[in-house]
Amino acid sequence: MRIVADENIPVADVFARHGELKRLPGRALATADVRDADALIVRSVTRVDAALLQGSNVRFVGTCTIGTDHLDTAWLADNGIAWSNAPGCNARSVVEYVLAALRLLSMRRQAALAQRCFGIVGAGEVGQRLANVFSGLGWSVLLCDPPRQHGSKAPGVSGCYGQQFVSLDELLQHCDVICLHTPLTLDGDWPTRHLLGESQLARLRPGSWLINAGRGPVIDNTALLGTLRQRDDLAVVLDVWEHEPVVDPQLAALCELATPHIAGYSLDGKIRGTEMIYRAFCRHFGLEEGASIVYPAAEISSLAAGGSLTAAQLLQRLPALFYDPLTDDAALRATLLLDDAGQRAAAFDRLRKQYPVRREMQATCLCLPTGSSALQQAADALGMPWQVV
Ligand SMILES: NC(=O)c1ccc[n+]([C@@H]2O[C@H](COP(=O)([O-])OP(=O)(O)OC[C@H]3O[C@@H](n4cnc5c(N)ncnc54)[C@H](O)[C@@H]3O)[C@@H](O)[C@H]2O)c1
Ligand SMILES: O=C(O)[C@H](O)[C@H](O)COP(=O)(O)O
User: Which of these, 56, 104, 233, 255, is most buried using a 10 Å CB contact count?
Assistant: First the structure.
């Protein structure tokens, strides 16, 4: 068996248990690289379609991501090529990114989070987990997810607290924090490309915050630039960009936070993605899985809360201990000083390739004093494991 995998996939060595593994740069994969392969393991930067796979031996494509907009799934199905993605692998990482971004915005804009109304567009693995955190913290949440509301999709993540589904128009009317967590889709009943165009952006409430950690083209970036040039009341956080790996420096300059598509880049999320695809690969080829993938222990395996810590302080401080979005923001902004768009694109990919280890909260246990039920509730709301010591 011959397996070709993107060189940026962590723990990809597990595939080598079953054949010859060749690791190559994902964005540059070409027909000749995959012609003799039986399985192709990618991340989101490889366009997998007829141009890449026509005439190849590939019978299984695994993408270690939730997003599938880089796969021509219709062509794969028509050509009898099985494919698999990794639902939920990095959802928790994105939730922690959004929490860190919100904390920063609340400090910069001097606005209490509890007093805002949160609108989540796309209530899948990420959106539903985020809604559960917000509801658990007692914040108001509205969800917009027409495929889930009107279609046949089962609820994403269980445990939602009866949050309400509304239309995008209603969500824009009522919410002053809008978080986008949809896939990129170009067709179907509810396509998401340019879901937020000029007219939707014009309807953002005064002082709104807009966070896109889904896919860049879900917001019309040209319209967003025009809007931000006219409105400094808005605060925008972009992790994803319309023409990645090229980022518009002018748009980034007007964003409160600008990061290089790393919301889902916790080490845990990336390893989980590989693990899920490894299992799908074994199922597809009828192979016996080797030993389980071992996740490295977190550098900080436990944290102790002092007796005087309040639940509000815990909620405020905990996400910041795990992730500081300003580091990623500064790294991206430094690349945008390069004159040449090609060099900026290469630098964007480099930041992602060399991304430092970031662990999720769940890799660390919070030690709480006895009789701290408010802290226990706050830790539960944040999705952080705890024990009473
Ligand atoms: N920035 C990152 O690092 C990062 C990380 C993970 C995921 N993502 C992106 O975020 C997306 C969401 O991730 P997920 O794990 O929650 O995926 P998911 O598939 O579990 O959820 C997506 C949800 O969006 C809904 N949706 C589809 N079309 C919609 C529309 N027109 N309006 C409103 N909702 C719509 C779907 O019904 C679904 O519930 C992924 O598809 C991926 O593109 C980005
Ligand atoms: O779709 C996903 O899972 C995320 O967007 C993921 O973070 C993409 O990462 P990449 O494949 O570009 O490394």
Answer: 255
